[in-house]
Amino acid sequence: MKQTTRKTIVILGLTVFFLVLIFITGDFRPHYTFAEDLFLTGISPVQGFFSRLGSNTMHFFEGIFDYGSLLEENKELRRELAGQKDYFQKMMELQKENYRLREMLDFRKRTEYHLLPAEVIARSPADWFETITINKGYADGVKANMAVVTSNGLAGNIWQVARNSSQVLLLTDSRRAVSALVQRSRDPGFVGIVEGYPEKEGYLRMVNLPPEASIQPGDIIISSGLGGIFPKGLTIGRVLEIGKDQYGLLQQALIQPAVNFNRLEEIFVIMEVLEEPEVETPFEDEAENSPTG
User: What domain count does the chain have?
Assistant: First the structure.
């Protein structure tokens, strides 16, 4: 037998002997003997090592067993967070819709027009600023060429009509032209034409203005009532810039539309004009405070 094996057997034997001796003589004694104390002091680091090893092993396996439940809890928390975000987005949309509907209701109360409310149900990305489709048609009394407005101003007119839907030609479409005048003067002798401005998408331009017409940046442009499609006094937009036409004979102006054509969601179709109204405009206060020039 090898020397190492003998030493191991001797150490194990002594260890067992001392443990038995401690067990037999240890009952009801307040103090250990010198030999017992010496032995316990020697093996305490070993006991501590194996105790820590066992504790770490137990925690390791507990972590493995808990991993699945942690994954499931994480998924549940993600679902709850996604639900909260979705709820918040819906609340924001409802608030915006509520604000728009309040504006429309207020406009409907203070106008003298007979209005038919409608929702925008389609618009083509290819002609975003040209046409929209609404959810009202000839079954609702809608006819071609009827004017279409929002609470902010003129949007366009009915172009094509189906039973339960209609296409609207927007003011920003280059095929659409509106006879218009400056609200500040309301002079019927200085009537121009407002049309879509292809060079600046989403904006309008007013052309064919006589050189003596009084117009300046900040002026509000309204429909003149000429032509038989659009009632007089509908807000079209505000003048941004003034210039001359390509021949230098007539004036023209860049117009910022009163209607946000990017965000059309609800509109009104003017079914009947009861009497000529004095429509309030979103720029009215600014126009009153501008110089008359």
Answer: 2
Average pLDDT over residues 21-34: 54
User: Residue 223 contacts by C-beta under 8 Å, 6 or more apart in sequence?
Assistant: 154, 178, 179, 180, 230, 231, 232, 233, 234, 236
What lies within 8 Å, CB to CB, of 213 at 6+ separation is 182, 187, 190, 192, 251
Report yes or no: 209 and 190 within 8 Å, Cβ to Cβ.
yes
Cα separation, 213 vs 184, in Å, equals: 11
Handedness of CA 203, 146, 208, 216 (dihedral sign): negative
Q: Is residue 157 within 8 Å of 146, Cβ to Cβ?
A: yes
The answer on 118 and 98 residing in a single domain is no
Residue 134 lies in a domain: yes
Per-residue pLDDT tens digits for 162-217: 999 999 999 998 888 899 999 988 777 788 999 998 888 889 999 999 888 889 99
**pLDDT of the residue at 93:** 64
Domain extent, residue 39, equals 34-110
Q: Report the DSSP beta bridge partners of residue 115.
A: 270
**157 and 73 in one domain?**
no
Q: Is the pLDDT of residue 154 over 50?
A: yes
Q: Which tokens hold the place of 120?
A: 């925008």
CATH assignment of the domain containing 169: 2.40.10.340
* Residue 22 is assigned to a structural domain of this protein: no
29: in domain: no
